[in-house]
Every structure is written in C-alpha cells, then in structure tokens.
Design a protein that fits this description.
It is elongated and about 75 Å long. It starts with a strand and ends in a 66-residue tail after the last strand. A hairpin with a 2-residue loop joins strand 3 and strand 4. It has a four-stranded antiparallel sheet with strand order 1-2-3-4, with no helix packed on it. The protein has a domain of 36 residues. The relative contact order is 0.09. By secondary structure, it is mainly β. The protein has no helices and four strands.
C-alpha cells in the first residue's frame, strides 16, 4: 500500500504498510512482518471545505431563471445520448447540412 522511511535514535527503518483493516495494520519493517493494533486513528488535519452558495440580493426569488425557451426555434430537435447543454456548433456560415450528418 504505502512505504515509509524512519530514523529512530540513529537507526534506519523501512516500513511498508501491507494492509489496514479496521484498527489492525499489517506491516513489513526491514523485511520482518508485524501485525499492529492501532489504539486510536489520527484524525485528519485537513477538512474538506463545504461550499455554501447564497442567492445574490439583486436576483428576484419569485422569478427564477430557466434554460427552457418560451418557444422552440429552428427546424428540429438535437438529440444526444447524455443530457447536457450545446455550447457551440462548429459549422461555417452558408453550408448545407443533410439530415443524419455526423462529425
């Protein structure tokens, strides 16, 4: 899993963490295997930040914006295997496209 190098009182130790199940760790210290019980797991120092979004004061709450147009535009529908938003279509002006033309 992970490897560590320690120097304790001038002695070097190469420690390889083989497995960690619950509070039991299997270690290889300089070629000798050990099974170690951990009394208390160290709590992580770094916490994942929590994103809190607030509604800006200049946006009216009773009239939320939607991405749905009031009326359909164009000649047909664009179907995709995954939901999403079409950001751009790479086509030059005045080019004739046929139905079922794929890039």
């Amino acid at each position: 899993m992970r490897e560590f190098d320690f120097i304790i009182h001038g002695d070097e130790y190469h420690v390889e963490l083989k497995s960690l199940v619950g509070n039991i760790a299997e270690l290889d210290v300089n070629g000798t295997n050990y099974s170690v019980e951990i009394k208390q797991m160290a709590s992580p120092k770094v916490k994942t930040p929590i994103l809190v979004r607030s509604i800006p004061s200049n946006v009216p709450v009773d009239n939320p914006k939607t991405s749905k147009p009031s009326q359909p535009h164009g000649a047909g529908k664009v179907l995709a295997p995954l939901p999403g938003v079409v950001l751009s279509i790479k086509v030059n002006i005045a080019i004739q496209l046929k139905t079922a033309t794929y890039c």
